[in-house]
């Protein structure tokens, strides 16, 4: 019988491969069940391919949460937010990570491997995973996001 672990899907491009690997190890050490969809080296790849993989799984409900990494985090966040029911937050500090969860119920965390270092990234991941969504008036705003998707 399998342990009930928090499941998270992660992906990166070549520019953030090293940071992804360090965060993957941190997540596993923290008791998470991690699915890594790539990339698996520093060979040049298109970030969108990996952003699509992670976002598709979160959008479909296969994984409750995901983490994406690219050089700046900008491209990955743009890709992720194209998917229904995905609320990807690009975070380079603790406050943005906390607020992306507390007020926006972000389900994908995005970080830039060329923007932040390993220790800060670990702290961002920790607070992002630990911070609950407040709901209430913030849920009303999330509902507006969902209505946008329905109009498309």
Give short descriptive properties of this protein.
single chain; five-stranded parallel beta sheet; 46% helix; Ribose 5-phosphate Isomerase B, Chain: A; alpha/beta; 5 strands; globular; 152 residues
How would you describe what is shown here?
- With 152 residues, the protein is of the alpha/beta class.
- It has a single domain, classed as Ribose 5-phosphate Isomerase B, Chain: A.
- Helix content is 46%, strand content 16%.
- The chain is built from six helices and five strands.
- The chain has a five-stranded parallel β-sheet with strand order 2-1-3-5-4, sandwiched between helices.
- Helix 1 links the parallel strand 1 (7-12) and strand 2 (33-36).
- The radius of gyration is 15 Å and the shape is globular.
Give the structural class: alpha/beta
User: Could you give the distance between the termini?
Assistant: 42 Å
**How many DSSP E strands?**
5
What is the radius of gyration? 15 Å
Strand line-up in the sheet with most strands? 2-1-3-5-4
Q: What's the CATH class, please?
A: Alpha Beta
The unreliable regions are none
**What is the average per-residue confidence, as pLDDT, rounded to a whole number?**
94
- Number of domains as seen in the coordinates: 1
Please bin the fraction of helical residues.
40-55%
Question: What does the overall shape look like?
Answer: globular
Largest sheet: 5 strands, parallel
Provide the succession of SSEs.
EHEHEHEHEHH
């Amino acid at each position: 019988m399998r342990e009930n672990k928090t499941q998270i899907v992660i992906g990166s491009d070549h520019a953030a491969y090293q940071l992804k690997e360090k965060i993957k190890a941190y997540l596993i050490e923290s008791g998470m069940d991690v699915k890594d969809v790539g990339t698996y080296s520093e060979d040049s790849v298109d970030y969108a391919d990996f952003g699509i993989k992670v976002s598709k799984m979160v959008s479909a409900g296969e994984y409750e949460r995901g983490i994406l990494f690219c050089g700046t985090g900008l491209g990955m966040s743009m890709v992720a937010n194209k998917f229904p029911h995905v609320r990807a937050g690009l975070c380079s500090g603790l406050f943005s990570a906390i607020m992306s969860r507390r007020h926006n119920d972000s389900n994908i965390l995005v970080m830039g491997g060329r923007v932040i270092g390993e220790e800060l990234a670990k702290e961002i991941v920790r607070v992002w995973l630990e911070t609950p969504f407040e709901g209430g008036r913030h849920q009303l705003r999330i509902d507006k996001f969902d209505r946008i998707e329905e109009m498309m």
